Amino acid sequence: MKKKRLLMLIGLIMILTACSEEKSTMNVEDAKKEVVSNVPESIDKITVTGYDPAIFTEDEEHPQKRNVLFKKEQEIELFLNAIKDSTVPSGEVTSEAENFKIILSDQDGNSDTILLWLYPDKNLGRIQKENYDNQVRILRKDDVQILVELLKEKSKTI
User: Fold this and answer.
1) Apex CA 131: angle with CA 126 and CA 136, to 5°?
2) Does residue 81 fall inside a structural domain?
3) Could you list the residue range(s) of the whole structural domain that residue 107 is in?
4) Which residues does UniProt assign to the signal peptide (predicted)?
5) Residues 18-45 pLDDT 10s
6) pLDDT tens-digit readout, 11-22
7) Residue 116 main-chain phi, psi, to 5 deg
8) How far apart (Å, rounded) are the C-alpha atoms in residues 80 and 122?
9) Is residue 93 domain-resident?
10) Per-residue model confidence as pLDDT tens digits over 71-93
């Protein structure tokens, strides 16, 4: 009798195991990180568009959007590292409009747009892929300073 019950129990476990859903090994944190930080490695130029008087010194009466182009490999690497090292915020974030757009372009003419919020006076920054709601990521403080300095330096040459 015990053997019969044991065989039935083993059979039931096998049936339940065979019918169960296959679970993905990627957790929610990895999935969120992949959406924004999964950028192609073949980026050959980055265009940053926006206007922020804290970064661009311009005529305050006639503010204009600026386009800053980055083509040097080291500059591109700094942007890509900042994107890849960003983290998911632990709380809520505000919903104001971005002050910059980052356009990542490759040699084939493909591009991807990432929205960028930079607050140099607070040493804060965040990114979000365009057209992806609720996928905001926070930039590291070191990366915020690096990006601000890059934008300031490059905008002087325009």
Assistant:
1) 25
2) yes
3) 40-156
4) 1-20
5) 776 665 555 555 544 444 555 666 899 9
6) 778 887 877 666
7) -130, 130
8) 22
9) yes
10) 999 999 999 999 999 998 887 77
